[in-house]
Specification:
The protein is mainly beta and about 190 residues long. The protein contains one helix and eleven strands; from the N terminus they run αβββββββββββ. It has one helix spanning about 1-15, and strands spanning about 20-25, 35-40, 50-55, 60-70, 75-90, 90-95, 105-115, 130-135, 145-155, 155-165, 185-190. The radius of gyration is 22 Å and the shape is globular.
Length: about 190
């Protein structure tokens, strides 16, 4: 009987498999290989869709979708991905929207920002969460940029207040452009 119990304990302990840890995207932890950075509170869901800013003949369109448990090479994560188009004076300046067909994304991320997080949001309530994404222009990839999105429901009209800003160190190549093709600043985009 003693040997049978010992055998069962040995088999049970050998058949146990370790589970990969799951962390919320709002937690600031160092992620271990094969862990899961999960959108536990569904913060990303409200940002999915097509969003448009238009003033006169200037139009900025962003299309975002949420990928669930996407493997980035180190860990799994829930992440917003998408593409964008910018039109100035009626002429397209850049258009990455068709790249969605090829599964290429020039907007991505899942960083949760709270009221006190930079850039500070004076209008945000204490419990509001904004999302920070990277936004890339392949023709000027040395001009790294980020965009902070704040979801607003304005009497039933879904909007995002977007703040596009420079990020990180920049080394401008000789003869390279010093400005992004989508101007830095604030945009209010309406859900289509």
């Amino acid at each position: 009987m003693k040997n049978l119990i010992l055998l069962l304990i040995t088999i049970a302990s050998l058949s146990c498999k370790a589970q990969s840890p799951v962390y919320g995207i709002s937690e600031r932890v160092k992620l271990s290989p094969n862990s899961y950075n999960k959108d536990i509170d569904n913060d990303l869901n409200k940002f999915e869709g097509t969003w448009v800013y238009q003033i006169g003949s200037t139009k900025f369109t962003i299309v975002l979708e949420k990928l669930i448990q996407d493997f980035n090479g180190d860990w799994y994560e829930d992440v917003l991905v998408g593409n964008y188009k910018y039109v100035d004076n009626g002429s397209p300046v850049l258009d990455y929207l068709p790249e969605s067909i090829n599964n290429k994304h020039y907007v991505w991320g899942n960083t949760v920002k709270v009221k006190e997080g930079l850039p500070i949001c004076n209008d945000c309530p204490l419990n509001e969460r904004r999302i920070e994404l990277e936004i890339q222009d392949t023709e000027r990839s040395y001009l790294t940029s980020r965009i902070i999105l704040r979801y607003v429901n304005d009497n039933g009209v879904e909007k995002i207040q977007a703040h596009l800003y420079p990020y990180g160190r920049r080394i401008i190549p000789q003869g390279g452009y010093t400005n992004t093709r989508v101007p830095y600043g604030d945009y209010v985009l309406t859900k289509q």
